[in-house]
Amino acid sequence: MTRAWILPMSLMACGVLVAVPETRDGSPLVAVGLCLVFVVLAWLYSPLAFPRSIGAAEAQRRSAADGMPVVYWRAGCTYCMRLRIRLGRNAGRLHWVDIRRDPAGAAEVRAANGGDETVPTVVVAGRPHVNPDPAWVRGQLPPSA
C-alpha cells in the first residue's frame, strides 16, 4: 500500500522544495504555478487517477458476467497511466486490479507473462494481452447500453 504512494509524495515534497525559494525571491505566482504542476503530476502517478481497484477473483467474476476486460495495473507505471488516460471515460467500464494491493492479481500477471509482473496486462475473454494499444482495448469494449 505505501509503495504506491512513495512517488506521489516525493513529487509533492519536490514541489514544496522548488516553490519555497520562489516565494522567498518574491515570485508567489511562480511558486503557486510550480506547486500546481507538481500536484497534477502527483495525482497522475497516484492510485487516485485510476478507477477503484477490486480483487482479481472479483474482477474475473464481473468480467464473466458483463464481458468487460480486466486490467492488471500498478501505480506509478507510465504505460498504465497512458492506457488510463487514452481510455478516457471508458476506463471506468473496465475492471481494474492493482497488483500491488492484490497478491492474486500479481500471480495472474506472472502466470500470463512467464513470471514477470509486466503491466498493464489486459485480459479479454480469458486471453491476456500485455501493454496493448489503448485504441485496441477501446475496440474490445461491448457497446454501452
From TrEMBL:
One of the Pfam families matching this protein, by short name: Glutaredoxin
Record has Magnesium as a keyword: no
Domain Glutaredoxin stretches: 70-127
Keywords, alphabetical: Membrane, Transmembrane, Transmembrane helix
Membrane-crossing residue ranges in chain numbering: 29-50
Protein origin, superkingdom: Bacteria
InterPro entries xref list: Glutaredoxin (IPR002109), Thioredoxin-like_sf (IPR036249)
UniProt protein name: Glutaredoxin domain-containing protein
The species this protein was found in: Streptomyces glycanivorans
